[in-house]
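Z., the sequence and structure:
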Amino acid sequence: MSNLLGLAVLGLLQESPMHPHAMAATLRERGLDQSFKLTTGSLYDVVRALEKAGWIAAQETARVGGRPERTVYAHTPLGQEEFLRWLDELVRVPADEYPKFLSAVTYLGALGREGAAEALRERSGRLRGQVEDIRRGHQEALSQVPRLFVIEAEYALRVMEAELAWVDETIAEIEAGTLAWPAEGSR
């Protein structure tokens, strides 16, 4: 299992057995659909893969009212063991990640000084809004649950603040002319 949505499913099943619809609703309610790529199809694919691997098992299938039958899943002993192994590895071992922004920054010079500064100013504004949203949501969550339960929002906030600082510093360098730039015609 390499799909991180599987980690989210296994994490939710740490709390209690549940059916995929409840898993999706819980992930969205907690804002974790920002951390895990979540679609109904991908969630059901992951649940089937986890079941096939023997990490989770159907506990019961029930129908409530006129709704379709829903299968409730729970960890197996193997699933519990693998979840903890996988989680431990993800925390311990830095992994290569390929963020889109890093790829774009590689070719920032192609936008020209003004185009690059303009694009970065827009990104800065958007990041500021996101930082404020995360900060507000994090503070609200901290009033309801222990810090450990929302520590991922704290990490996301720090990463975003670091990116914002870098973007703002780069804008200042472009505007001051201290960031070396190839001659406009030599691209």
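Strands lie at 56-62, 70-75. Residues 112-142 form the longest helix (31 residues).

Let me know what you think.
H.
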